[in-house]
Amino acid sequence: MQLNMRSRLGLLAMPVLAAMLASCGPTPQLRVHDAVIKLNPVDSNPSAMYFTVLGGPKEIYLLSVSSTSVIRTEMHESAIDPKTGAMTMNKLDRVKVPVDGKVEFKRGGKHVMVWGVNLVGRRLGEVEAQFLFSNNERILVKARVEEMDGSEPDEKTGKTSAPAKTEAPKGDHGEHSGH
Fold it and tell me: What is the pTM of this model?
């Protein structure tokens, strides 16, 4: 049996088409998830925000995290000084997000310092945060607001607690306590 020219071309094109379709997996999407603000027990000191960034199809940088529900934010990274063994904290201007990679902002590492979470965010138990990336993409995420132990904020539950402390306990790390 003899194949006509079209059939032969079709048979030759099938492996090429199969290879092309195999490489058409899902394109990685830039995402932010599991955002949470852990409230500092000392109200005048900053709280900490933790979250995970999943990289998209291109390497980019996280430039800032902001929210209209807070006074100010700064990205920081905690690390152990190899010379002294002391915990240090450095301000970060940007954080690299690799292609299809994962960057975790977590306790003891990268985190966002958050000053002045407003009463509305505390009562609702969440605030909207905006993540700005170097490709000018902005991602809005709802960040849970909770006490350091994971419980709901006192302002949400209506619990009455002892008056807010105004200074850090002895041996604490001042405004960096609790994260």
Answer: 0.75
